Amino acid sequence: xxxxxxxxxxxxxxxxxxxxxxxxxxxxxxxxxxxxxxxxxxxxxxxxxxxxxxxxxxxxxxxxxxxxxxxxxxxxxxxxxxxxxxxxxxxxxxxxx
Length: 97
Hints:
With 97 residues, the protein is an alpha+beta fold. The protein is built from 2 helices and 6 strands; from the N terminus they run αββββββα. Strands 1-2-3-4-5-6 form a 6-stranded antiparallel beta barrel. The longest helix is centred in the N-terminal third of the chain and has 11 residues, at 5-15. The termini are far apart.
């Protein structure tokens, strides 16, 4: 079994969910498709980039609950879905438990 950087990157990829979401960089208005690492009502963790150059970013609900925002490398990124929308997504994914 290899213990090089590729092995570490592939180990990380196995834990990443295949779900992807679109986020917006507020300074430029550019949209990015990012991979969701973990999704909970209070925080959504996304992964920007691939392999050893990836960055994890925690997106937390805004004060009014209409979006999730976080900071990556000094830039603000926003997931423009409300807390209620994310709650519904989580319920759907859990099979309405």
